[in-house]
Known about the structure:
Layout: H1 26-32, E1 41-42, E2 48-49, H2 55-70, H3 86-102, E3 115-119, H4 126-135, E4 138-143, H5 146-157, E5 166-170, E6 188-193, H6 201-216, H7 231-234, H8 239-253, E7 258-265, H9 271-280, E8 285-293, E9 296-304, H10 308-319
Parallel strand pairs: 3-4, 3-6, 4-5, 6-7
Antiparallel strand pairs: 1-2, 7-9, 8-9
Amino acid sequence: MKTSKKHPKTKSNLHPKSKHRERYNFEKLIKIHTELAEFVKKNDYGDESIDFFNPKAITALNTALLKHFYDIKFWEIPENYLCPPIPGRADYIHHAAQLLGESNYGKAPIGNHVKCLDVGVGANCIYPIIGNNEYDWSFIGSDIDEKAIENAQEIVNQNNSLKGNVEFRLQAKSKDVFYGVISKDEQIDITICNPPFHASAEEAAAGTERKIKNLKGKRDLAPVKNFGGQNTELWCEGGENKFVRNMVRESKKFASSCFWFTTLVSKQSNLKSIYKSLENEKAIEVKTIAMGQGNKTSRIVAWTFLTPSEQKEWRETRWKKS
Length: 322
């Protein structure tokens, strides 16, 4: 018999501004989204929890969190599309705001005149939802999957708070990142991206099985991806390393169009080649921001091509009214 397990009151590894630092209050979440109730059970330690390997349970939890914390009335995603953990996505947004703040005399710019490009927005539209609610930013969401774009647009259409603040652009060429998305003379304050992690479908499947085996202590003959994901969301040729290095190369062509380019980098082993690419493209400034949720560690790599004088002009012309 397992004994009671003491949990910290807050998740100290999450950003200080995160709304998710405390343990889930399932009583409140069920009140706002009753469908969550059927998935909440007592775990071995006597705590209320859900089965994080059940995609339907994760979807119900996310829906409840978005309703409770971000004033979202409608949120649905097609079956088998990525259903990401909300706290991690919120952390990225808060770190992005902090990064902009460090370039703005310590004050994160807010308001819909601040524009963020979400590369690979997905059907879930999570980053625009959180960024708009927390900082009133406007968003461009790009994706190569037309069905994902259509679903994300429906989420915006069904939520008045998002209308007029989020637009979507279909990336017609799967190997391009910014080409065909950023318009000529357009200014983007920050880009964010959660790149495909794996280099092939086989690697993605093996990674999922390995994760389940490690967490459950046994092999699952038919592993279920706990957060779903289409091929384009989970893997691409060359995996995360090649995707990010390609992003760096393209970003140089839009050096004056964006203040900060950023991306998640899950594999620490990829950092060396990414830093080398940034050096080759002569990035003016590069920052690496540590992130951590639970047992997983990750980081955001950020870079800019703007000189100090160009950064000052950007602040004065775009963020002064924040």
